[in-house]
Structure formats: C-alpha cells, structure tokens
Amino acid sequence: MPNSRSDNRVVVTGMGLLTSLGDDPDSFHNNLVNGVSGIAAVTSFDTSEYPCKIGAEIADWDPTRVMDVKEARRNDRYTQFSVFAAVEAFKNSGLDMSKEDPYRVGVFVGSGIGGMHTIESQSFALFERGPRRVSPFMIPMLIANMGCGRVAIELGAKGPNFGIVSACTTGTNSIGEALRHIRYGDADVMIAGGSEASITPLSYAGFCQMKAMSTQNEAPEKASQPFNSGRDGFVMGEGAGVIVMESLEHALNRGANILCEISGYGATCDAYHITAPELSGEGLAHAIKFALKDADMQPEEVDYVNAHGTSTPFNDKIETKSIKLSLGEEHARKVIISSTKSMTGHLLGAAGGIEAITCINTIRSGEVPPTINLDDQDPECDLNYTPHTKVTADVRVAISNNLGFGGHNGTLVFKRYED
Predict the structure, then answer these.
(1) Residue 86 to residue 92: CA distance in whole angstroms
(2) pTM over 0.85
(3) 347 C-beta neighbours (distance < 10 Å), count
C-alpha cells in the first residue's frame, strides 16, 4: 500500500440500495436491527434438481421504476439494479448535476459476475434457435462494466468511470478506489458500490457443484449461520448498494447533509488459492491494518466490525483469526462484530455496497445489527458476534470486511463526521 496520500477528507452524503430487506436505507436498517431474514425459497426458476433451493431474491422487481419498457429489455437485471441504487443515492445526496462540473463526477459501480441472466438467455437462443436469434444487445447487456456506464448516462456523470471486478470484494474495492480518486483530486464526487443479479439456474448449478451453498432448505430463514457450528455454506442474495462520496470541501460548499466520513481503505491478495482463503488469516489482517493506517487510526479505536461472515466453514474461522491478528487479541474480544449476511444472504459483488451502508447506519443510529441463527457458536469463532438481537452502542468507528474468490481482501473504515 502506498504511504503517500492527499489531505482531502472524504465524506458520504448519499445512500441507495435494493435488497430483499428493503429498497431504502431506513427500512433496510430497521429490518436488520430487528433480526428480520430476507431469505426464502427461490421462486424465479425450478429448483427441484438443485441441492440449494433458497435465496434472498428481489421479489416483484419492476424495472420500469428506473427506465422505460424498451430500455429495460436492453439492460440486464444487474444493470437495472445498479441504476436504481445509484439514482436513489444521488437523490438522497441532494446533488444537482446542473450545478456540477460533470467531468468532476465519477462512477465506480462494479459487479462480481455481470449479466448472468443475459448469458443464460442468449445461450438458449443460440443453441435452440441459431445465431441469428441472438440479441444485438447481448454484449453490452452482459459485460460487467455496463452498470457504471449506464449509471453515468442516467446521471450525466462524465468523470472517472470503470467497473471493478473482484468477486465478492467488488463493492468494497469500488468504494475504496473512489475514495482515492477524490483524495488525489481526480473528482469532487464519486458514486460507488456494487450490483449483482446471479440467482439463476446456471449460477446455482455452478455454486452447488462447488458445494459452497447451504442445503438447509427446510427453514430458509435459518440457513445462513455465520460463525455457528452448524453452518454448511452461504445463501445467495441479489441487489445493489451504492453511496455518494464527496470531498469535504465540496460537501460543505454546497451545504450537504453529511452522513459520515470515510477515512480508510486497505486491499490485499492472499496469493494462495482460487477459492479458499489462506489459512493463517494474514491476507485480510493486512488489509485491515492498511485501512487503519490509511485512516490514521489505532486498532483500539474500532467500535464495530461488519464481518464478511459468509456462513461457510473456512471463511468464518479465517476471518476470526484475521480480526485477532489486526486488532490485537485483547481488543478483538471487546469489539462488537456482526454478520448481516445472516439476514441478507451473500450479494457477491454487491455485498460491499450494502454492508458499507450498514456501517453508516450503525454509526448514525447507535444500533448494531445482530448475527441471527448463531445458536451454537463455533469454538474456533470465539469473538463477540452479537448473537440474535441488536445491541445499542456508541459507535464512532466502523469497519467493513470483504473477501473474494481469487484471494481478494478489502476493508473500509467509516467514522462519525466531526468538524
């Protein structure tokens, strides 16, 4: 990680999301802190031959909420989600593009997989009806940068724009790189986060064959069990989470409502295995340490950790090690930790976006969401993972962790805004 950085402070002024637990930050937060699960039986395709039959779907999604019928047919579901969350975040920020230099407003809204719905539907068209029946819009519909491209078109944002792809770390990397672009003076405003729509037959078949997904289908709301002894895999979710970030100077000059400050970012790679985390936990531990150094903070200042906490056997115990290594054994046992994937499922490339919003809401409300389904805590996961019910705490500093296939690790540091 580079040691040099600009002194530009960066603040969050807008949030937008789409999840199975709500399509606005307030209802989402209320459901999280009340332990509501958004996981149910999958209804969008026939799961009878699949070991995993559950997920956190966006029920009754209507893309005409953000685009007309013609445009909706030309954009993949993940792109529709991207536009919805980004437009909501922009509205929430109070920004007015007519008053901004469009070349100073950028977009980093990534996706871990991209247009999976398009890949599947167009493959069927090719193999069942021939190449002439493949849509001329197939390529722009499926590529993983189209979410941020379509957001830019919608908002008229002409600044830095590209789609970061780092599996389940995508949302966190997108926000972290946006932070740097503002700090280094390349933009005044960045719209950043992640989007994913991979609850599809092919995607489920692949993850099921890896034996990565939970098969506890009888009680879907209890299947995602981060840090629990009975956990057997993750539960997939879909949706998007996007935040608006500005330089402090820009936000103050326009009288923005500042939600919190984003002060640190760290990114590393395990360089170990294509899917499994490195067993010592050093990779994520270094990402956390780098993020705290970037924020000019000590480990003891961290009040809350939104854990990656996927409910997979390896991830949860390795993340436990990482938190101990980075925060120190003593403080690791004091800090409040939770995995909201117990309620939202795992949104893959969108996870970092909605979990950043969770950290922001936690700082603002003082309400820490629980880890539900933590009935029999794994002895190797021996930290305070906030089982079952929310806790009230004075949270000044919150960090969010994400890990992705390929060995990617990312951490963001959020703190209460103070003059």
Answers:
(1) 10
(2) yes
(3) 33
